[in-house]
Structures are given as C-alpha cells and as structure tokens.
C-alpha cells in the first residue's frame, strides 16, 4: 500500500543511548518532515527536507540529526537520548510545500527514554 | 504568542448537536489553511482544506477570515464517530516551508 512507513513503532531507550527512527515513502514526494508530539500538545517540527540532499531545521532540532540521501528515505537520528525526548514521532511527506492534499503521515514511533 | 492557537476543550456534546471550533493564527503571511483530525494515539489525517470563500464537506463547514486571522470549523449533526481531536493547521510560505499545527481541540460526542 502506498504511504509513509515508520519503524520501529515502539522503543524504550536508556539515557545516553542512540538510535535511528526510519521513515520511507513510496509516493515520490519531494517534501518530507519529522514532527514530535508530546502528550496533550500539538506537533512540533524537528527537521524537514525539500528534496534529496537538502535538509533544514525546524522549530525543535536540538538533539536530532537527519539525512536525505534518496527521495524515499528520511531517517531521524538521536545521538544522546535524554528524557526530554520522550515523545511520539511522526514522519510525513507531501508533493509540495503548500499542497492542498495535505500531508501523508506515518503511524508514528512511540519513544520512551528512561 | 503561539503561532496557532486553539481552545483545547474538551467539548462534550450530545449526538446530533452542532459544535464549532475556532482557531487564530499569528503570521499574516500564511497562505494555506487546514483542519486535521487525530484519533487517540493515531496519526493526524487531513479533514479538509480551508478556502477564503468558505467550504463545506457534508456535515463539516470551514471558514477563513484573513482580516481577523481566524479559522473556524462547524460540525453539524454530530456522530459518536466524530469524537477526536481537531487540529488547526497553517502553512507559512515564508521561512520554514512546513505546516504549523495548533495543539488541537478535543471533541467528545456522547450518546
């Protein structure tokens, strides 16, 4: 099925550990995004990409890194996990920045840092 | 000031009721507006885009007031299945080319 696939769905990390959240889309979308959502809050933009090889910081980039080597993949890297990074992470893609079709979201990764 | 502000609710309404949600945005350069729906522990999904002339999709009506920087969503004849969080979303074409999400308004429709 076409869409955005995120892995893993759940993960528990210890403080200081690192991990990569994977995101893949098969819709040939140029734009991809990483958001985090804390309980009872809206989504906050971490990083985004407007095409392969191009990434830019969002509202809350500290503690994260991204890369975009292909159109399909947009992994998010946490280098030194901290309890403040406990959140639900959503990856999304769109065909253009202001697309009236909106974003297609992955089902999310629930991360707990202990 | 938050870029997109919404009343968090919850709005508790009986089935069949009409309910309205409001949202304000701070960036006057914003050009695209949306309402997303998010079910508990799920990803957000596009409910409808919001156009300057106002638009309707079945029981849902969205309106935009650019002068007041205000967006609204009206749900008529509420169903139990409408229970969810409704996110007001704005696209800013200057600076970050990404959607900015409000914190959401929670709706609980009761039998």
List keywords for this structure.
heterodimer; A: 114 residues; mainly beta; 7-stranded mixed sheet; 49% strand; globular; B: 111 residues; 6-stranded mixed sheet; 5-stranded antiparallel sheet; 56% strand
Q: What is this structure's SSE topology?
A:
The complex is a heterodimer of chains A (114) and B (111).
Chain A: E1 4-7, E2 10-13, E3 19-25, E4 31-37, E5 43-51, E6 54-57, E7 64-66, E8 76-78, E9 87-94, E10 104-105, E11 109-113
Chain B: E1 4-6, E2 11-14, E3 19-25, E4 30-38, E5 45-50, E6 55-57, E7 60-65, E8 70-75, E9 84-92, E10 99-101, E11 105-110
Parallel strand pairs in B: 2-11
Antiparallel strand pairs in B: 1-3, 3-8, 4-5, 4-9, 6-7, 7-8, 9-10, 9-11
State the largest interface: A-B, 26 and 26 residues
Mean pLDDT figure of chain B: 91
Residue ranges of chain A: pLDDT <50 for 5 or more in a row?
none
Instruction: Report the C-alpha radius of gyration of chain B, rounded.
Output: 14 Å
The strand count of chain A comes to: 11
Taking all Cα atoms into account, the compactness measure Rg of chain A is 13 Å
Quaternary structure? heterodimer
* Low-confidence runs of chain B: none
Major pleated sheet of chain A: 7 strands, mixed
Which secondary-structure class do the elements of chain A indicate? mainly beta
How many helices of chain A? 0
Helix share bin of chain B? under 10%
Could you spell the SSE succession of chain B in H and E letters?
A: EEEEEEEEEEE
Strand count, sense and barrel status of the largest sheet of chain B are: 6 strands, mixed
Roughly what percent helix of chain A?
A: under 10%
Q: Could you report the average pLDDT of chain A, rounded to the nearest whole number?
A: 93
Task: Kindly state the number of beta strands of chain B.
Answer: 11
Shape of chain B: globular
SSE string of chain A, helix = H, strand = E? EEEEEEEEEEE
So how many helices of chain B? 0
